[in-house]
Specification:
The protein is of the alpha+beta class and 94 residues long. The protein has one domain. 36% of the residues lie in helices and 11% in strands. The protein has 4 helices and 4 strands, in the order E-E-H-E-H-E-H-H. A two-stranded antiparallel sheet has the order 1-2. Strands 3-4 form a two-stranded parallel sheet. The protein is flat, with a radius of gyration of 14 Å. 13% of the residues are buried.
């Protein structure tokens, strides 16, 4: 298996820090969160910066005042989220 550069998107003071080759990131899904730790705006901004990426909004309710979304909401989209990860790993030979 060839090594991959990790894609890291950090939400700090409303900015996005991305570390990845564009060839690797091209055509991949970005799944923004909906809370203070994983703000939707950061994922949407990353989607605009990475050519060919697709922003997948799984969590519909915004929680701008909580650190992490309620577990029940995360459980509701767990299968969809898992499918995106499995598809990603298959695409990249993991």
């Amino acid at each position: 298996m060839r090594s991959k550069t990790a894609l890291i998107a950090l939400a700090t003071a409303g900015s996005v820090l991305v570390g990845a080759s564009m060839a690797w990131a091209d055509g991949n899904d970005i799944v923004p969160g909906n809370d203070k730790t994983h703000p939707r705006a950061v994922g949407e901004k990353a989607g605009k910066l990475i050519p060919g990426s697709e922003v997948c909004i799984l969590l519909q309710t915004e929680h701008p005042d909580v650190d992490v979304s309620p577990a029940e909401e995360l459980e509701e989209v767990a299968d969809q989220h898992a499918k995106l990860y499995v598809d990603f790993m298959r695409k990249h030979g993991a």
